[in-house]
Amino acid sequence: MTKVAVLTSGGDSPGMNAAIRAVVRTGIYYGMEMFGIMRGYNGMLEDDIFPMNSRSVANIIQRGGTILKTARSKEFFTYEGRQKAVANLEKRGINGVVVIGGDGSFTGALKLSTEFNIPCIGLPGTIDKDLYGTDFTIGFDTAVNTAVEAIDKIRDTADAHDRLFIVEVMGRHAGYIALHSGISTGAENILIPEAETNIEEVIASLSEKEKRKKLVNLIVVAEGDEFGGANQIAKIVKERLPHLDTRVSILGHIQRGGSPSAMDRLIASRMGYHAIESLMEGRHNVMVGVLNNEIAYTPLEIAIREKQSISSDWLRIVKILAS
Ligand code: F6P
């Protein structure tokens, strides 16, 4: 009998529960024995592994967070730690693992599969959308929608006071949340790590808009921007344009919570189903992604290593629409 375990690891993201549900129910449909591992690789190490059935995943598709909880495990990144963890899988006869998480989680999965020959399938669960080989990651759409809702509200108060707001969004080293939320809220400037930040250009555009009496301005900054986020940008702007009424807002972990959007529930369900199908077809050590609305498989090492590029079109759109 095939025995498959599922875990969530790294930063949580809305839609992880929908993915767990899809993995567990598809596995059961195909007659597999399913297990849940608590707190990512920590639960594997601490033997916190339990059988799951269809009812274990009832009423979770709409919930944010993850019922399996999550963690970033240091011990798993030692060989001894992994040996201990694998012994806990082996004593139950677990012969497949579905890992829902981001690049750190996939690095762990890769080690499990290459060192101990345990077939692993990765599902991209991260709000950052920083994995190669997929147009969407589970949680990205919800995070962008949360940021958009917050920035729309900030624009109201910015407008009332004729203020400049510099809003920082998450994304770690990637600028996708900033780009998507910035375009969707009509931000005047969007600063992301994938494009060089020309601070002189930012200052010039703010001065030029001031001359045109365009007093409401929004700058959306990715936390991974080369200047180090919203506070650093605000410091420079305040020095150079002291007469502007400038405020900073850092959206923070609000972007990781909340009920997943329909889009995130949908891709999580599709990906979860295909994770089990992949194991049955003998695919190992791949990430299940969606490219051009088709399911696509990318070797885990490529999903982690390769960088996605942001087309220059996107940045042109920002410039033209913010004029
Ligand atoms: O990877 C998801 C993410 O939310 C990043 O956008 C952010 O940089 C990081 O996790 C925050 O991590 P923590 O919750 O450990 O502070």
Automatic annotation (TrEMBL):
It catalyses: beta-D-fructose 6-phosphate + ATP = beta-D-fructose 1,6-bisphosphate + ADP + H(+). ADP binds at R21, A22, V23, V24, R25, R155, G186, A187, E188, R212, K214, L215, V216. It holds the Pfam family PFK. GO terms for cellular component: 6-phosphofructokinase complex. Allosterically activated by ADP and other diphosphonucleosides, and allosterically inhibited by phosphoenolpyruvate. The keyword Nucleus does not apply. Keywords: Allosteric enzyme, ATP-binding, Cytoplasm, Glycolysis, Kinase, Magnesium, Metal-binding, Nucleotide-binding, Transferase. Residues 3-278 form the Phosphofructokinase domain. It is found in: Cytoplasm. Pathway: Carbohydrate degradation; glycolysis; D-glyceraldehyde 3-phosphate and glycerone phosphate from D-glucose: step 3/4. Its EC number is 2.7.1.11. Its cofactor is Mg(2+). InterPro entries: ATP_PFK, ATP_PFK_prok-type, PFKA_ATP_prok, Phosphofructokinase_CS, Phosphofructokinase_dom, PKF_sf. It comes from the Bacteria. Homotetramer. Belongs to the phosphofructokinase type A (PFKA) family. ATP-dependent PFK group I subfamily. Prokaryotic clade 'B1' sub-subfamily. Catalyzes the phosphorylation of D-fructose 6-phosphate to fructose 1,6-bisphosphate by ATP, the first committing step of glycolysis. This is ATP-dependent 6-phosphofructokinase. It comes from Ilyomonas limi. The lineage of its organism: Bacteria, Pseudomonadati, Bacteroidota, Chitinophagia, Chitinophagales.
